[in-house]
Amino acid sequence: MKLMTMCYNSNYFFLVNKIILVLSAIIIMLISGCATEPRIALDNSSDYRIEQEFIKEFGIQFSSASSLPELYFYGEEVKNGMLGLIDKAENYIIINTFLILNDSSGNIILEALRKKHNSGVAVYVMADSSSRFLEGESGFSYMDRNLIPFAEYNAIRPWKLFPPINFIKLRFRDHRKYWIVDGKYVLLGGSNIMNSSLQSQDTGGHTDGMALIESPEVAEQLIFSFINNWNEYSSSDIRSADFNIPETAQMDTTVVLFNQEVKDKKPVIEFMVNRLFAAAEKEVWIIQPYTFINDKIIFYVEEMEKRGIEVNIVLSRVANHEKYHYASFYGIKDLIDVGADVWIYDYKESPLHFKAYIIDDRFFSIGSSNFNKRSMELSAEVNILFSDRKSFDILYRSLDEIKRNLRKVTSEEAMEYRSLEYKRWHLIMQNAG
After folding, report:
1. How far apart are CA 350 and CA 356, in angstroms?
2. Are 148 and 114 in contact (CB under 8 A)?
3. Least packed by Cβ within 10 Å: which of 112, 384, 386, 389?
4. Which run of H or E residues covers position 246?
5. What is the pLDDT of residues 183-206, one digit of tens each?
6. CA distance linking residue 300 with residue 291, whole number of Å
7. Percent of the chain, pLDDT > 90?
8. What is the pTM of this model?
9. How many helices (H) and strands (E) does the chain have?
10. Reduced to 3 states, what is the DSSP secondary structure of residue 27?
11. CA 93, CA 296: separation in Å to the nearest integer?
């Protein structure tokens, strides 16, 4: 018991984290230069051909019937949206999140889940093991005390660091954030269950967001994924029969779900990015907190600029940790050199955590994925793509709000971020962040 207590001591975990970062840096040096150049396939085919490509290559259901989205932007909106979903639930609640803490905001959500669970509604929560590295009590401890069923994705334990092959497996994380209620409602985006995601901007909360849709078809796809992961990491199995899916009624639009599983080794997110960039004609906005550039990312940006497309990349002045700031800002010069406009989001002490790809006035993808190697190759991620005019206009409010607090980075300023410290974190975070 004493040994287990030591394992969860925060100082101990910070030490383990440093070990992981050092090992990541070593791995980066060993594998650098091995990446192949990506290819953007220009979209000259019909919608039918594209649909078949999605289905054949990745098993993606090309279009799922859906309601128009409701955007929850900023912490208070997201928190109230989560509470509203919990209140609506009659049969079950499924939550897949990256981070979950029993802090003041997280406790509000956890308490609502506890009450719903005690009322007879089935509640299942899966979160990544990374929650145990954060300061404060993890949501795992709260759920364990209150008998709420939960699973810990790819648990990080000290003994798993050796032999080295086990360490490599620990790099793979579940970064997805989605909720499913009664097989009908799906909430999806970038927000975790903790203060930084659910507090207001003025108190240091993230500038972040989630999209709520009503779509039994999307719910069914995510439930299938959730069951597979739950049964791998939990001591008790669940079955598809445990989750009733209602019939799909007449819906307002269709969406495409991009759900990337680590164990499938299929680059679903990169495929989505590739196709969106290929479809771009005039303007692209990449809103990301963590853009850790590499040769592949530079290639994508440069190729679009050569086609006359205006590429805008938004980063954040405020970061949760200096390593994210260093790693992201180091690459600004390279992005500007190939023609991109780089913007810094600067609103009080609110870190930008919103994650979206906005292509012309046609496509809007929102989800958990960042524009970096980890999201494209090492993490489970989920994005949802909207392509109808009404949905685009609803979600575009996020970019309008973000634009109010942007400033453009000059080449002179970009040179300030080329010091050894910025370079060091840029290398480490290629795999670690």
Report:
1. 17
2. yes
3. 389
4. none
5. 999 999 999 999 999 999 999 999
6. 13
7. 70
8. 0.87
9. 18, 17
10. helix
11. 38
DSSP readout, 127-138? Answer: EEGGGGGSSS-B
- 288: closest CA among 344, 227, 211? 344
* Token representation of residue 52: 């078949």
Element (H, E) at 324: helix 322-330
d(CA 96, CA 98) in angstroms, rounded, equals: 7
Rounded Cα distance between 15 and 17, Å, is: 5
pLDDT tens-digit map of 312-369: 999 999 988 889 999 999 999 999 999 999 999 999 999 999 999 999 999 999 999 9
Query: CA 82, CA 177: separation in Å to the nearest integer?
Result: 12
Q: Describe the crossing of helices 10-31 and 420-432 by its angle, rounded to 10 degrees.
A: 100
Sign of torsion over alpha carbons 402, 408, 413, 417: positive
Domains of the chain, first to last: 11-432 (3.30.870.10)
Closest CA to 134 of 13, 6, 7, 20: 13
123: left (phi over 0), alpha (psi -120 to 50) or beta: beta
Residues, the chain: 433
